[in-house]
Amino acid sequence: MHPREAPSRVFWVAGLTAAAPGCAGIDQNGERVGAAAVDLVVEQLHANEFGRPPNPKTVLIEGRWVLGKTAPGPGHAGVKAH
Q1: How far separated are the first and last CA of the chain, in Å rounded?
Q2: How far apart are CA 48 and CA 21, in angstroms?
Q3: Which of 9, 5, 6 is nearest to 78 (CA)?
Q4: What is the per-residue pLDDT for 34?
Q5: Three-state DSSP class for 26?
Q6: Torsion angle, CA of 61/65/66/71, rounded to 10 degrees?
Q7: Torsion-angle region of residue 50: left (phi > 0), alpha (psi -120 to 50) or beta?
Q8: Residue 8 predicted with pLDDT over 90
Q9: Which residues pair with 65 in a beta bridge?
Q10: 54-74, pLDDT tens digit by residue?
Q11: What is the rounded (10 degree) CA torsion for 36, 39, 40, 44?
Q12: Nearest in space to 61 (alpha carbons), one of 37, 26, 33
């Protein structure tokens, strides 16, 4: 591809929200993220800890890929699986 040429296929991906129905992206599992945040705050309150913790805890809630019209994925017209 020449540096000034546009690629023949362009896909658009987003962190999914209700404002972007039909788009491909990552469902960030907001309900579980919120629940985990509440659990952390409750844990601090039970331990009588307030403010920013000296050793913050990291919690990972996995997202999941959602197919959509903006990036349909392998097996769809024009998309090759690797």
Answers
A1: 20
A2: 43
A3: 9
A4: 94
A5: strand
A6: 140
A7: beta
A8: no
A9: 26
A10: 899 999 999 888 888 777 666
A11: 180
A12: 33
**Residue 66 or residue 38, greater confidence:** 38
Residue pair 48/54 in contact (Cβ under 8 Å)? The answer is no
Q: CA 58, CA 63: separation in Å to the nearest integer?
A: 16
Output the average pLDDT for the chain.
Answer: 78
12: CB partners within 8 A, 6+ apart: 23, 24, 70, 71
The amino acid occupying position 37 is: A
Tokens of 3: 């540096």
Beta strand 25-27 with 14-15: parallel, antiparallel or unpaired?
A: parallel
Residue ranges of domains in the chain: 24-66
The radius of gyration of the chain from alpha carbons, rounded to an integer in Å, stands at: 20
